[in-house]
Write a structure and sequence with these properties.
Elements lengths: L3 H20 L24 E5 L2 E8 L5 E6 L8 E5 L24 H13 L11 E6 L2 E4 L2
Parallel strand pairs: 4-5
Antiparallel strand pairs: 1-2, 2-3, 3-4, 5-6
Length: 148
């Protein structure tokens, strides 16, 4: 007689091998795409999409133990980037055991803050569709300030 557990494990193992083998089959059309402008992948790690006035933007928040960053990009990866520094904004997990911990401002970084940052950056010379050096801002006391 066969051990029922061994038989089920064997079937599951064979099924897993079949799935893995299917997943590694190459796509013959994968390398036949061409684009004139570098674009973003549909999903990129740590980046979020945001549409504002029918224009696509992407934002990413980088939490650090001090002076965290909000990165902004337009619809193409070759455009100018805007970076908003949030002074004294700390990742609470990176600050365990440290004294003098001030509350973060804002408490939570959301797409609302990102959209406000994008609007401020656009009003102050950010050109996300054109190549150029990074433009820097600071978010302090509830306001955005452009750094020269």
């Amino acid at each position: 007689m066969f051990n029922k557990n061994v038989t089920n494990s064997h079937v599951a193992f064979q099924f897993l091998l079949t799935i893995l083998n299917w997943a590694t089959v190459s796509d013959p059309f994968r390398d036949n795409y061409s684009f004139n402008i570098m674009s973003y992948p549909k999903k990129a790690k740590d980046w979020r999409n945001l549409i504002l006035d029918n224009q696509q933007f992407r934002w990413s928040f980088v939490a650090k133990d001090k002076n965290s960053l909000l990165k902004l990009q337009g619809s193409t990866s070759s455009g100018q980037q805007a970076i908003v520094t949030l002074p004294n904004w700390r990742d609470s997990w990176l600050s365990i055991g440290q004294s003098g911990f001030l509350p973060n401002e804002p408490k939570v970084v959301t797409s609302k803050l990102a959209s406000q940052a994008i609007e401020f950056a656009l009003q102050n010379g950010w050109k996300p569709e054109e190549a150029g050096s990074t433009i820097n801002f600071v978010f302090k006391d509830g306001n955005f300030i452009q750094l020269k």
